[in-house]
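User: Can you predict the 3D structure for this chain?
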Amino acid sequence: MKRRGGFLRPMLEHEWSPWVFLVAAVLLGIISNAAYDLLAEPLGAGWTLLTGTAVLAILLGVFWLAYRTSQPPEPGQPLPSRRALIVLVSARSVETTPAYTALCHHAGTPENPGRLEHCYLIHDKLQGEEAKEPPDSSWSNAHKLFGLCRKRGVTPELLETRAYDCAETTRLCVAAWRRARQDACLPSREIIADVTGGTKEMTIGMCLAALQTGCDLEYLQPNKLPDGQTEYIARWVNVGHFFRHPWEQGEPEAD
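Assistant: Here is the predicted structure, written as structure tokens:
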């Protein structure tokens, strides 16, 4: 994805862009030859070769460690908690919504707190007067989750969309991602968007936003327990196929 490997990735992996890989390899050869010629006279051929080998080994080690630490999880693997969460709020009993489950997963419990710091709650608009709003509507649930975030020490933000408007949901998801990056100063690897809740149109809108930003997506997979209860496991969704040339995409344009 866009943020993983940065500008070095097309130089290190030939399948991303053969021409970029080839140019990088040629430039590396030219630079290494120039460095050898520069050091050969004062140090001698033997010491120059030894020094060059040591420097090359160190650089390869650094690149290998950076590459290993930047790898995304395997598709379907459980995800650890992140520092920013973007969720779609459904209309049903609040404790049965995917947004509630995702929030609990990333925020943790008082005994075992997670790493969540910011939560962006994308919900449907108010259906009528606030006093007559159904208690299990998307709007009502978002405000309940807003209070839960405050209790857990998480900074919440409400973002109002229309439940059947893909474009509006996409815009809000991109805005939430941008705020997490710019206002909260979080790296992309600390931001996750949960696609489980909301309407199908809201889910599509969130996926389209991920294609623009490179934001990680997760899905809450149900898992039946022996006692008949159901637990939900947050799993990474692989959309890397759509990021073949991430260095060409850049940051999303401001509204």
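Residues 6-69 form one domain. Strands lie at 84-88, 118-124, 155-161, 191-194, 216-224, 230-237.
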